[in-house]
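Here is the promised in-class demo. Please do not try to memorize the tokens; focus on the logic of going from shape to residues.
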């Protein structure tokens, strides 16, 4: 079973910091720091990276396998003040 999460950030301009935090938690991000030997970079994985089988299929649409659904539910619940989310159960899909 796969679930399709479709979301929209309703208050994007008023809640910019929360929107950015949500995006970082979902997709991950690169960060860097300076050391004596030079600049170092590292990538912090997001929830999509941590859950095999999950993928972004369009802007604001994510397919999530059943085993990872609770993790995504928790993330979207944390940001429910800025997000409008609809979750669909996908029983059958066809790739073109």
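The designed amino acids, position by position:
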């Amino acid at each position: 079973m796969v679930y399709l999460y479709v979301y929209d950030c309703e208050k994007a301009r008023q809640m910019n910091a929360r929107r950015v935090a949500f995006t970082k938690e979902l997709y991950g991000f690169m960060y860097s720091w300076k050391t004596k030997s030079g600049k170092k970079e590292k990538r912090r994985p997001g929830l999509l990276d941590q859950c095999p089988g999950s993928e972004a299929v369009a802007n604001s649409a994510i397919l999530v396998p059943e085993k990872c659904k609770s993790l995504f539910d928790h993330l979207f619940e944390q940001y429910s003040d800025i997000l409008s989310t609809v979750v669909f159960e996908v029983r059958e899909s066809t790739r073109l």
